[in-house]
Amino acid sequence: MTMSVLESASKTPSIKRVVVTSSSTAASQMIFDEAYNLTPDCWNDTAVKMAWSDEPNAFMTYAASKVQAEKALWKFVNEKKPHFAVNTVLPDFVCGPPLSAEHQGYPSSIGFFKMLWEGLPGETGWFMLRGQWMIDAADMARLHVAALAHPDAKNERIFAYGHRKTWTEWIKLLKQWYPDRTYPQPMQHEPADLSNVTARPEAERYLKWLNGEGFKPMEESIRETVESFPKN
To answer: How many other β-carbons are positioned within 10 Å of the β-carbon of residue 119?
Structure first.
């Protein structure tokens, strides 16, 4: 689909920008508890190897699809040199209330968070997403707008990485804010993503240009999401 959009845009002289949502899984090196530089030149080639191995799993296959799709996009840009600029936005865990829970439910990342809020054990799936960065949904939307409109945003990978996240920290905050609920226990040691996201300051600069502020505080995003959950 992405390549079809790029081909169609190439035939339309009035188009100035194309913005594509990629994923953190296209760049993440899947390294935990160890500091390293995560740069716009990084690719999750490990996921591609695992996806095409004899024992693939769903998560690595998903990540591999993001790697290969985005690599194909940049190959097109480098070889065809289209008349328009192309930007990709790479969000990690997205937190924030849905626009309409009644009509769309709690999809994607916040669906995992809702499992935790409901006290379901880690085996239900929420603990699969750990050792990550997070971004508020409104900030992610703003970065897409900035990718479309900022004069400097041309042929960039924009890393939508707001704050480091662990379920251990989130459960601790929830216990402080809502002590009457029962929460599942995280594993004894939850691996952390200690990557230094070198392009994060540029993403924050785009947010400040558009909104006057940097990344929304993680605690604020968590509270707003929880307040959107049905209260039993």
So the answer is: 11
Q: Is residue 202 part of a domain?
A: yes
pTM score above 0.90: yes
| Coil, helix or strand at residue 213 | coil
Q: Give, for 94, the enclosing helix (H) or strand (E).
A: strand 93-95
SS3 231: coil
Q: How many domains does the chain have?
A: 1
Q: Read off the pLDDT of residues 58-105 as tens digits, 9 standing for 90 and up.
A: 889 999 999 999 999 999 999 999 999 999 999 999 999 988 888 888
In a domain, 137, yes or no: yes
CB hemisphere CA count around 18 (13 angstroms):
24
Query: Does any domain span residue 9?
Result: no
Residue 1, in any domain of the structure: no
- Reduced to 3 states (helix: H, G, I; strand: E, B; else coil), residue 116 is helix
C-alpha triplet 92, 142, 24: angle, nearest 5°: 15
How far is it, in rounded angstroms, from Cα 189 to Cα 180? 25
Domain of residue 170: give its range. 17-228
